[in-house]
Amino acid sequence: MKRMKSPTIFLFFFFFLISTCALLLEASNNGGGGSKEVPDIKRSDFPLGFLFGAATSAYQIEGAYLDDSKSLSNWDVFCHSVVGCGRNGSNGDIADDHYHRFLKDIEIMHSIGLKAYRFSISWARVLPRGRSGEVNPAGVRFYNMIIDNLILKGIEPFVTIFHGDFPQELEDKYGSWLNAEMTEEFAHLAEICFKSFGDRVKYWATINEPNIFTDLSYQRGVFPPSRCSEPFGNCIHGNSDVEPLIVMHNLLLAHGKAAKLYHENFQPKQGGSIGLVMHCFMYEPLTDSELDRKAAKRALAFNIGWSLDPVIFGEYPEEMREYLGTKLPSFSIEEKNFLKNSTDFIGINHYTTIYTKDCTNSGCSPTANRAIKGFLEMVEERDGVPIGEPTKVKGFSVVPRGMGEIVNYIKIRYNNTPMFITENGYSTPDVDAKGIKELVNDVKRVKFHTAYLASLAESIIGGADVRGYFIWSLMDNFEWLQGYDVKFGLYYIDRRTLTRLPKLSAKWYENFLKNKSDVMKL
Ligand code: NOJ
Description:
Layout: H1 6-31, E1 51-55, H2 58-61, H3 74-81, H4 98-112, E2 116-120, H5 123-126, H6 137-152, E3 156-162, H7 168-174, H8 181-197, E4 203-208, H9 210-219, H10 243-270, E5 273-279, E6 282-285, H11 290-313, H12 318-324, H13 333-339, E7 345-349, E8 353-358, E9 376-379, E10 381-382, E11 385-386, H14 401-413, E12 419-424, H15 436-440, H16 443-461, E13 466-472, E14 491-493, E15 500-502, H17 504-513
Parallel strand pairs: 1-2, 1-13, 2-3, 3-4, 4-5, 5-7, 6-8, 7-12, 12-13
Antiparallel strand pairs: 8-9, 10-11, 14-15
Helix pairs in contact: 4-6, 8-10, 9-10, 10-11, 14-16
Bound molecules: 1-deoxynojirimycin.
């Protein structure tokens, strides 16, 4: 190679320095609140076999709530009886009518170039009466058709066994998750799934977001079965300081029993993997004080360690035991043994980062001033400056740096157990949702995903064993209490005709996955 003369070398380094500084400046802008620029992120920045996909859940998209011998689920009953189950009186009776349109939806996934699709099983469709009744052949047939058609299109099925909906009969019979019976019910459902679908499904998530499920259903009581107590909410029944602990205990044991079954009886032949999916905010201290820094650590333990420590180490986190004492249930030796290392991967549902303020030393809101909350408060602003640009869902601000931070935290705490980003998504705020034209031209969603992916790529370069990324969601759907007003989809759904319309983000994802030009730069 020809040698460069010294002034040329000097000039070369000068320009290199200037361009590196410019790049760093741009990256730090993106890492802050809003994502102003689109980072240059490519498919090739991720490992070859990395699974890029999209996610949904049964109640949020399927509809067909009474078709083919399905029984009523807790959400069907809740939505039919509680005024305002979903905003504007909406419910999941029809949802996106995926039950009748799944072939079209798989076609959409294929056109985007998805390599994986995460969906959940409607318990009431497969086992309408739980383990006291028969398997419903129509339910099994439905999921078989989905799985077969996905595989035909080269899309890996990634199945969540429980995503919030279960037969109402189990609630009426013995109080569902407050009762240890439910762990057996769940293990039975899981076994039916492994037997029926496990020859083709290689990724199983036992339970979606146990931490959010306990919070919304048994602490704030806004989800069925509407159980809570003051100051968390005003329910007829419940105890917000105690029941979430019992329910989580049962959820973890249910996970452990299903995982044991899979590891012992199915994995050796079927060769897949099984994990738990967690709702994972990242927590940053509000101030640099020792107390706020400790509060941020506690927030991670109380929200993430609460479920992940038991399924990896077989114990609840120290921090929780310290604050909750004997209120926190204990695992028997046998339970510890089957819980320990019961998760082959960690599913991370990550949307945002929030500041954490200590409440042990100063007064906070009545709900934050509780042992079960770890005596800490979540705050969205520091000195009047929001942590990130708001989205439609309160508290889900855009903070791309948090993606890399949460992955690195989980990597270190859990010895780099394989991870999947099982959900990451952006809900269009009202100001940008004036009409279909604006909703479909979702530039901010594209910026959101590129910025979060850039942060994720950095953590992978740093050694984090992340194996996939799923956008929430394939299409706009029933966002629980917020009904159809909150839109996370790559596809827009016309609520009158249920026609699916691709948004700019669908085109962006396709171009990204197929290594075509970035839609934002066209
Ligand atoms: C997490 C849940 O798994 C999903 O059901 C929900 O719709 C999204 N986050 C968005 O809030």
